[in-house]
C-alpha cells in the first residue's frame, strides 16, 4: 500500500504540499484580489471565510499572498477578548496610515483559546461595532475546490503518481507502507503510518488546548510562514524589534526581465526591514538608473500597498550589469548612502551582477557588505537553485494558453499545434509545461532537434491520430523552446510536420510570446518571494560581524578569504533544502557562462517521465 495525499487543506504532516492545496489557494487569492477592488472603491472591510477545519494553511498563505490585515486560524487562537483587541489594533493602525481596504481572512475552523468557535459573523460584528467599518462577509465555500488544477498540482500529482508506482515495485513484504511527499523541490517517501499518526495528533492537541504542540507538529515551513506574516504585517506600526545599534540600511534592486513575484519580494523585504528596525532602500531602474540618475529612494509602507499581488516590477528593471553601467559610480552611491547590505532580485544578469560586485570588493570597499541574490526568471536558469521566482507564474500562463489551443485542436480532426516556448537556453519551461498539459513531445536547447527524432515523432503522432478514439484524444501539442533549433522555428517545424505527415494530420504554429511572463503573480511565487526575502534580510543581519573589519580597513581585506567571499551568495532551493551558496563557488565551478546556464540540469529526469507517459519513442 502506498499513499499520495489529495487535500485542499494541506493538512498532512511530513509533506510541504498536498495535491489540490495550491489550486484552492489560487482560487482564494483570485477572489480576494477581486474583492479588494470593491473594498478600495467603497473603503470597505471584507471578512473572507476560507476552508480549513483543523488546518489554517489556506488562510495563512492567502493572508501572505494578499497582504491581508488579519487572519484567524485554528493553530494559533487567542482568548476571545484578545483576538478582538489585536484585530482592532492592527486594522485601526493600517487605516490611520491611509489604507482604504481591510481584509480579514478566517479559516472555517477558527477558534478562541477556550475552543469556542469564531464565525465570520463574530468578526463582522467586531469590525462594525468597535471600528464602525462598512463590512461585508464573503464565504468562498466550495468554489475553492473548483476550476482547473494549477500547474504545480498537475506536475506534483504526476510525479507523485510515478513515484508511488516505483515505491510499490521497490517494496518487499517487510517494507513499511510509504507516503509520497514533497519537501521543498524533492519528491520523497515517508512512513505512511507515522505521517497519519502525526496528522491526527494535531487535531488532538488543538482539542486538548495544547496549541504550542499543535504548531510544533505542523511542518517548520508553516511556523516560518506565520512568523513572516506577523512581521510583514506589523511593518513600521510597532516598536522595532532590534536595538538602535543593530539597525541597518539595506538596498534592493531588480535586474533582468520582469518575473512574477518580484514585487512580492520587494514588499516583503521592505516591510520585514521596517518591523526589525532597518531602513529599506529601493534602487530604481536597475544599475543604469543608479549610475545615471542616483535613483535611490527609501521605501515607505503606504506607497507599497498592493505590491504583494502585482505583476511586473514596480521599481523598474533592465538587463544592464554593473560593469556596463559604471562600477565606479555604483560604488560611489553605495558609499554615499552607506548601505550595510544588498538584495538583488533577478535572473542570469543578476547572477552576473553579483559576481561582478564580489570581484570588485578588492578595489571598492563599498561592496564589502553582505549581498544576496534571490533568483527571479521564468527561464529558471540561475545556478544554485532549482526554483526561481516567476517560473511558476510563467508555467501557469503557458499552461492556460496550451489548454485553450488544445481545445481548439480537439475540435478539428487531425490538428496539432507547435507551441513556441520562451526560456533562453533552458528547456525547463517547455519540459514542465509538457508534463502539465500532456504534450506529445517537447524540444529543448539541451537536446536540440535531430532529424531522426523528428521523423520518429511525426510517425508516432500520425499513429496516435489514427488510433484516437473520442473527441478528447484528437488535439495534440508539441512544445518547442525558441532556442531548441537555430534552423527550425515553430512555423517551419509545423510546415515540415504537415508535409511529412502526408495528409494524416496537419500542424499549425502557436506563439504565446510575452504572455508567458504571466499577469498577476501566482500564490506560489508570492509566498515563496516573501519567504526568500525575509531569509535574505536575516542573512544580511547575521553576516555583519564577519564583514565589519573588512569594511573598516583596506589592509585587512583578503579577497580570497572563504568566509568573506561567502557573504556574497545565491539563495536558492536545492533538493529538499533552502540553501545559501557563495557566488564565487557557483560562478567558477557550476556555471556555463557562455550558455547562461548551470552545468547540472536538475529537471532532466522529468523529461523521461513526460516522454514515457505519452508513449514517445526516443531515438538514441
Describe the 3D structure.
- The chain is an alpha/beta fold.
- The chain contains 22 helices and 20 strands.
- The strands form 5 sheets. A 7-stranded mixed beta sheet has the order 10-9-8-11-12-17-18, sandwiched between helices. Strands 3-4-2-5 form a 4-stranded parallel beta sheet, sandwiched between helices. Strands 14-15-13-16 form a 4-stranded parallel beta sheet, sandwiched between helices.
- α16 links the parallel β14 and β15.
Provide the descriptors you would attach to this structure in a database record.
22 helices, 16% strand, alpha/beta, seven-stranded mixed β-sheet, four-stranded parallel β-sheet, globular, single chain, 620 residues
Total DSSP helices: 22
Number of strands: 20
What spatial form do the alpha-carbon principal axes imply?
globular
Strand % is: 15-25%
Range of helix content? 40-55%
The main β sheet shows up as:
7 strands, mixed
Low-confidence stretches: none
Q: What can be said about this structure in brief?
A:
The chain is of the alpha/beta class. The radius of gyration is 25 Å and the shape is globular.
Could you give the topology of this structure?
Blueprint: E1 3-4, H1 21-42, E2 45-50, H2 57-65, E3 70-72, H3 80-96, E4 102-107, H4 120-131, E5 135-139, H5 151-170, E6 178-183, E7 186-191, H6 192-207, H7 211-217, H8 220-234, E8 249-255, H9 262-276, E9 279-283, H10 286-293, E10 296-298, H11 322-325, H12 327-337, E11 341-346, H13 348-359, E12 371-375, H14 391-411, E13 415-421, H15 428-437, E14 441-443, H16 451-467, E15 476-481, H17 490-500, E16 506-510, H18 523-542, H19 544-552, H20 562-565, E17 568-574, E18 577-582, H21 583-589, E19 591-592, E20 597-598, H22 604-614
Parallel strand pairs: 1-6, 2-4, 2-5, 3-4, 8-9, 8-11, 11-12, 12-17, 13-15, 13-16, 14-15
Antiparallel strand pairs: 6-7, 9-10, 17-18, 19-20
Amino acid at each position: 500500500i502506498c499513499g499520495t495525499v489529495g487535500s485542499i487543506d494541506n493538512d498532512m504532516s511530513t509533506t510541504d504540499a498536498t495535491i489540490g492545496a495550491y489550486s484552492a489557494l489560487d482560487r482564494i487569492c483570485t477572489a480576494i484580489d477581486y474583492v479588494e477592488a470593491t473594498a478600495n472603491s467603497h473603503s470597505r472591510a471584507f471578512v473572507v471565510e476560507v476552508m480549513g477545519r483543523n488546518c489554517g494553511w489556506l488562510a495563512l498563505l492567502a493572508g501572505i499572498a494578499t497582504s491581508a490585515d488579519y487572519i484567524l486560524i485554528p493553530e494559533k487562537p487567542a482568548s476571545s477578548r484578545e483576538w478582538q483587541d489585536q484585530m482592532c489594533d492592527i486594522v485601526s493602525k493600517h487605516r490611520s496610515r491611509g489604507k482604504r481596504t481591510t481584509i480579514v481572512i478566517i479559516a472555517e475552523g477558527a477558534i478562541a483559546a477556550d475552543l469556542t468557535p469564531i464565525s465570520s459573523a463574530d468578526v463582522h460584528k467586531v469590525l462594525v461595532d468597535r471600528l464602525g467599518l462598512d463590512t461585508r462577509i464573503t464565504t468562498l465555500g466550495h468554489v475553492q475546490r473548483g476550476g482547473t488544477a494549477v500547474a504545480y498540482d498537475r506536475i506534483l500529482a504526476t510525479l507523485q503518481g510515478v513515484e508511488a508506482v516505483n515505491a510499490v515495485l521497490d517494496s518487499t513484504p517487510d517494507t513499511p507502507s510509504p507516503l509520497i511527499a514533497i519537501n521543498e523541490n524533492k519528491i520523497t517517501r515517508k512512513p505512511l503510518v507515522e505521517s497519519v499518526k502525526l496528522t491526527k495528533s494535531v487535531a488532538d492537541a488543538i482539542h486538548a488546548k495544547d496549541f504550542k504542540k499543535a504548531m510544533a507538529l505542523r511542518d517548520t515551513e508553516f511556523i516560518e510562514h506565520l512568523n513572516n506574516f506577523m512581521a510583514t504585517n506589523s511593518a513600521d506600526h510597532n516598536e522595532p524589534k532590534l536595538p538602535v545599534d543593530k539597525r541597518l540600511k539595506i538596498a534592493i534592486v531588480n535586474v533582468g526581465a520582469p518575473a512574477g513575484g518580484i514585487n512580492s519580494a520587494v514588499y516583503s523585504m521592505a516591510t520585514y526591514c521596517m518591523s526589525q528596525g532597518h531602513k529599506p532602500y529601493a534602487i530604481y531602474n536597475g544599475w543604469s538608473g543608479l549610475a545615471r540618475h542616483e535613483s535611490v529612494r527609501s521605501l515607505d509602507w503606504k506607497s507599497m500597498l498592493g505590491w504583494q499581488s502585482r505583476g511586473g516590477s514596480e521599481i523598474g528593471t533592465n538587463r544592464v550589469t554593473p560593469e556596463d553601467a559604471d562600477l565606479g559610480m555604483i560604488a560611489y552611491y553605495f558609499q554615499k548612502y552607506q548601505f550595510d547590505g544588498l538584495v538583488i532580485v533577478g535572473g542570469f544578469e543578476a547572477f552576473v551582477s553579483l559576481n561582478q560586485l564580489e570581484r570588485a570588493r578588492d578595489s571598492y570597499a563599498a561592496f564589502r557588505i553582505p549581498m544576496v541574490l534571490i533568483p527571479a526568471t521564468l527561464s529558471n536558469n540561475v545556478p544554485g537553485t532549482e526554483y526561481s521566482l516567476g517560473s511558476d507564474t510563467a508555467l501557469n500562463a503557458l499552461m492556460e494558453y496550451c489548454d485553450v489551443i488544445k481545445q481548439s485542436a480537439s475540435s478539428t480532426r487531425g490538428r496539432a499545434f507547435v507551441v513556441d516556448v520562451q526560456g533562453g537556453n533552458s528547456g525547463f519551461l517547455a519540459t514542465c509545461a509538457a508534463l502539465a498539459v500532456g504534450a506529445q513531445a517537447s524540444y529543448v536547447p539541451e537536446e536540440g532537434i535531430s532529424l531522426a527524432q523528428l521523423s520518429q515523432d511525426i510517425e508516432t503522432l500520425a499513429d496516435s491520430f489514427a488510433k484516437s478514439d473520442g473527441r478528447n484524444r484528437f488535439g495534440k501539442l508539441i512544445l518547442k523552446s525558441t532556442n531548441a533549433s537555430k534552423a527550425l522555428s515553430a512555423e517551419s517545424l509545423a510546415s515540415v510536420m504537415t508535409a511529412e505527415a502526408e495528409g494524416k494530420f496537419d500542424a499549425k504554429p502557436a506563439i504565446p510570446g510575452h504572455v508567458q511572463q504571466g499577469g498577476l503573480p501566482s500564490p506560489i511565487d508570492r509566498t515563496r518571494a516573501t519567504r526568500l526575502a525575509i531569509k535574505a534580510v536575516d542573512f544580511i543581519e547575521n553576516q555583519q560581524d564577519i564583514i565589519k573589519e573588512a569594511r573598516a580597513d583596506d589592509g585587512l581585506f583578503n579577497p580570497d578569504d572563504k568566509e568573506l567571499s561567502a557573504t556574497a551568495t545565491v539563495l536558492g532551493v536545492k533538493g529538499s533544502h533552502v540553501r545559501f551558496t557563495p557566488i564565487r563557488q557557483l560562478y567558477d565551478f557550476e556555471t556555463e557562462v557562455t550558455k547562461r546556464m548551470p552545468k547540472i540540469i536538475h529537471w532532466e529526469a522529468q523529461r523521461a517521465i513526460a516522454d514515457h507517459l505519452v508513449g514517445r519513442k526516443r531515438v538514441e
